[in-house]
Amino acid sequence: MAKRILTALLVVLMAAWAAVAYADDCLNRGQLDEMYCDGDNDLVADSPKDPSQWKDPSTLVFTYTPVEDPAVYKDAFADFQAYLEKATGKRVVYYTVQSNAAEVEAMRSGRLHIAGFSTGPTGFAVNLAGYVPMAVKGYADGFQGYNLIMIVRKDSPYQKMEDLKGKVVAHTSASSNSGNLAPRALFPKLGLVPDEDYRVVYSGKHDQSVMGVAHGDYDAAPVASDVFERMAAAGRINKDDFRVIFRSPKFPTSSFGYAHDLKPELVQKIVGAFHTYRFPPAMQKTFKGADRFYPVTYMADWQVIRDIAEATGTAYNKAGLKKMAEKEAAKAKK
Questions:
Q1: Contact indicator for 121, 107 with CB cutoff of 8 Å
Q2: Which residues belong to CATH 3.40.190.10 in the chain?
Q3: Which controlled-vocabulary keywords does the entry list (predicted)?
């Protein structure tokens, strides 16, 4: 018994010594968890310096951000999984996750190697799980995304953002990125502070905000451009009845990437597979016309998302992840 205790103590001490040594060897960590280092200042975890820490699993585990019906996306990625198997020479299995927090934890624990994370949770995955984003769904000339747009009725007198001071503006819901968080982060820089310069009312959904503006219930509404476009394409609204007085930089949709500690040669094969794969017709239909994975970087293409998170008090740390997990659990109970 004493021998086993001594052995266990030595293991703990060796792990602690290794962690300290790694910490001392890390010149820059930035916002990353203490498990990771960012020596090249690109905001994502570096590959371990010690080759013995590189992972080269015989089976790669892949997943996509949790949605209401995960089976739909498991089927949608089946062809790509086969392509990834040929490119890497490894078996690829799909792992269904039930929440964004669970997906982050799966990569942090080493149970998940390749994944697609939703726009917001990408920051948690980068900082807490050593996730390295490298692509989003897209087209030959750019990535698939959406903008925050401020819409007003075309027959209204509102021509610019300042004209909305003292008016009634519909946000969607408190947790919505483009419907509430982004406006609160971006509009003050334009001289328009929500709840101060205009009265905020919550509509509940983007389409309800759009219809509310159309019917004159609200003077304006910040909504996601893709929702607005889909409503117009479906004939629910006439685009000519509206005026867009503000359009944000494009927000990326869900990111795709890999665990930072995979063997570099394996990473090259994974990245190559993502960049050369072309979506078959069924997959294009599922993902609204996107036909490929478009290359991105977390530093450049997630800048606007990080700005919104900072402005709205969202911290991509353990406390923030816990808060997100609690929200997801509460939502699941409803």
A1: no
A2: 31-143+252-333, 148-248
A3: Signal
